[in-house]
Amino acid sequence: QAPLAVLSKVELRVSCKHLLDRDTLNKSDPCVLLLMQSQGQWMEVDRSEVIKSNLNPVFAKIFTVDYYFEEVQKLRFEVYDSHGHAGVGTHDDDFLGGMECTVGQIVAQKRVTKPLFLKYGKFAGKSTITVISEEISGNNGYVELAFRAKKLDDKDLFSKSDPFLEIYRIDDDRSEQLVYRTEVVKNNLSPIWEPFKVSLNSLCSCEEKRKLRCVVWDYDSRGKHDFIGEFFTTFEEMQKAMGENKVQWDCMNPKYKIKKRNYKNSGVVVLLDLKIHRVYSFLDYIMGGCQIHFTVAIDFTASNGDPRNSCSLHYINPYQPNEYLKALVAVGEICQDYDSDKKFSALGFGARIPPKYEVSHDFAINFNPDNDECEGIQGVVESYQSCLPKIQLYGPTNVAPIISKVARVAADEERTKEASQYFILLILTDGVVTDMADTREAIVRASYLPMSIIIVGVGNADFTDMQILDGDDGILRSPKGEPVLRDIVQFVPFREFKNASPTALAKCVLAEVPKQVVEYYSYKAFPPRCPQPETPDSNLSSPQ
């Protein structure tokens, strides 16, 4: 089953009405957990903040989930009454109710309201939960905003106000959608709130002129917050705060405005800084001229069998390519479209090589130590076939040296601070690697560089241990316990694709690469390069 392409990401916002009151003295302090079903098990994905003393909470937390059109993705929302430091208790007496649905239902309906159920299908009184979904579109960036206020009205008798700020987006149907709620700054009439990030989609539906309502409240631990004042603005107006400029608004209380003759405001809110971050796609990087450099590494250990024998995995049959060649061609043909010079590095490991017949774990199969590149996939195939008679298959199966070799080139590339070259290393091997500790260390180092590693297991060995390297289940760690920065390894046994088309293998092993490329450049904050003007002869479509 080839991994499905992520169609898009979806943001979910949650609110509840008429929650059960579990606390004797004051109201429940609700928190929502989001669980997703994976292989029949419910796994917690994320949880919201705790809202104090409120039976009708609107949570500020935005849950982000990947949306696959072709899959039924089951979600479960569970609401609990939280007890401060102990975190969210999962005892039955703290359970305020749950609701199950699918991502597809929420996306199709955009807004789902359902009753909350306690255990054994009992209704949780009149409690309901509402989930609103928004797709994060491709051209969507996010903004970082930093607000402060000055001289707010004092609402507290014995101390100063404890202000927090809420931003609402006003939708076309005049309904208001909570975009963000800041933290509370205690006992301060001129608070400086922490900077925060929101997506442009959630802030203003990517429309700069959409109206926003910003409200300042004085926090009350019993949930009865006092209204200090409000103001209206747009993202267009906020953008004046870029660079050295600041934008400020009068924070108004409409009641005071009517009552008090010389009322000016209830304080001023200042936007100190605004930064816009674009979110780029894989295609943005490719179209900006990022080249994918492809390296193949071939296992020449003795366990493959003598290449002259027809049972050998390296046997060259004039009528039928062996598994090494099939895997190489399937993956290489896709990668070559993204590499303008069509030159591929081809390396071998685990053999004794001429002239001295010493074991090497990273030799060029064209035997040119100064330039291990071959012309196109065909060049790699020819070098592979001509090197087989010249080498002695040996061992052990050490792949760390090759990972480190490609990583050195990728590290030089990283220093350019541009999204200009990304490296894919395809390792073809017939067995479990011998230097597992060194390999794990090398992968952790490589996860900080512009590279991805694809491992295809050839033949019928037991590859169970190789699955460890593919961090999909748990997080791969170095022997010292350091985790990978990003999951960069994809492992598949070739035998699962023996009877499938070559495209199925390529689709499976390359499915993760676009995401890995974007993750790397986003982490580094490298934008795509500007698309270069085409030179007349550089990109004429030559017949493939």
Automatic annotation (TrEMBL):
Superkingdom to which the source organism belongs: Eukaryota
Keyword Repeat: yes
Gene3D superfamilies attached to this UniProt entry: C2 domain (2.60.40.150)
Domain VWFA: 293-492
Biological process annotations from GO: cellular response to calcium ion
SMART domains, alphabetized: C2 (SM00239), VWA (SM00327)
GO terms of molecular function: calcium-dependent phospholipid binding
GO cellular component, one term: plasma membrane
Segments forming a coiled coil: none
Domain named C2: residues: 1-116, 123-250
Keywords of the record: Repeat
Pfam families per the UniProt record, alphabetical: C2, Copine
CDD domains assigned to the protein according to its UniProt record, in alphabetical order: C2A_Copine (cd04048), C2B_Copine (cd04047), vWA_copine_like (cd01459)
Family, per entry: Belongs to the copine family.
Protein name: CPNE7 protein
Native organism: Chunga burmeisteri (Black-legged seriema)
Gene: Cpne7
